[in-house]
Amino acid sequence: MLLEVKNLNAYYGDSHVLRDMFLAVNNGEIVALLGRNGMGKSTTLKSIMGLVKPKSGSVIFQGKQIAGLRPHRVANTGIGYVPEDRRIFPNLSLLDNLKMGIKHGQGDKFRGKNRWTVERIFKHFPFMKARTHQKGALLSGGEQQMLAIGRTLMGNPDLILVDEPTEGLAPVMIAEVRDVLAKINKAGVSILLVEHNLKVALSLATRVYLMGKAHLGFTGTVEELETHPDVRRKYLEV
Ligand SMILES: Nc1ncnc2c1ncn2[C@@H]1O[C@H](COP(=O)(O)OP(=O)(O)OP(=O)(O)O)[C@@H](O)[C@H]1O
Ligand SMILES: [Mg+2]
Question: Is 12 touching ligand 1 by the criterion CB < 6 Å?
């Protein structure tokens, strides 16, 4: 098991946003976390990442307890986060934005051939080569999304948490982002994906978790979900 979240509880003030949340990601897997607006999907990712401090529960990553650690410490254990709002620096070039993802002090851990370099990122995102010196602000939404993913990969994560990567993108770009996530996964990066686009999510994931208000409603394989239209109606906008 790569990541295991158990009995996680998180609050914003008095509002109990995650109630005994659980989920797991196996090595090499793409897992989708789905559900209607406001159910707590982003909060789940933020709690894993340490951006929201959980009140109780455990987050075990590669055998280590990481619940409650500060975000940079969580990142250093090998988890990357691609936030919903992408956070591209508008005045930095594409290349400089990419380099912002490099983690210093990783020592020899990533000296192996699987290490992400700018060249390797360009192989996965060919559009970047011609846009190296373009300012972040001048990239399209889809390009910014890919840059945000590429920047996270520069930190050599074993697992990435990706929040709504296709939101607001044109259909062509949605397909490109989908394909790039599939390729990254083939290259060895496990993915926990929050995604509103059901088609994209189900075409990538092997297993899905559906969130109801603050808790999980359904856990199963994509095949199991497809044979339960009632579950889809209850937890998703379909
Ligand atoms: N910083 C915050 N302070 C207070 N309440 C918040 C904060 N962020 C989110 N919430 C509330 O917590 C609940 C869960 O929010 P969250 O963003 O995790 O949901 P979500 O499932 O990601 O929704 P969406 O599909 O709209 O992105 C919502 O009711 C939301 O209004
Ligand atoms: Mg969200």
Answer: yes
pTM confidence score: 0.94
* 150-183: burial string, b at 16+ Cβ within 10 Å, e else: bbbbbbbbbbbbbbbbbbebeeebbebbbebbee
Residue from 42, 52, 196 to probe ligand 1 pocket by mutation (most atoms less than 8 Å from CB): 42
- What does DSSP assign to residue 236? S
- Helix residue ranges, H only, the chain: 41-49, 71-76, 94-99, 118-124, 127-130, 141-153, 171-186, 198-204, 222-226, 229-235
Domain count, the chain: 1
Q: Which domain holds residue 123?
A: 3-235
- Whether ligand 1 lies within 6 angstroms of the CB of 91 is answered as no
SS3 219: strand
**Ligand 1, atom nearest to 46 Cα:** 18
pLDDT 10s digits, 197-222: 999 999 999 999 999 887 888 899 99
- What CATH number corresponds to the domain at position 164? 3.40.50.300
d(CA 141, CA 139): 7
Q: What residue has token string 């949605």?
A: 174
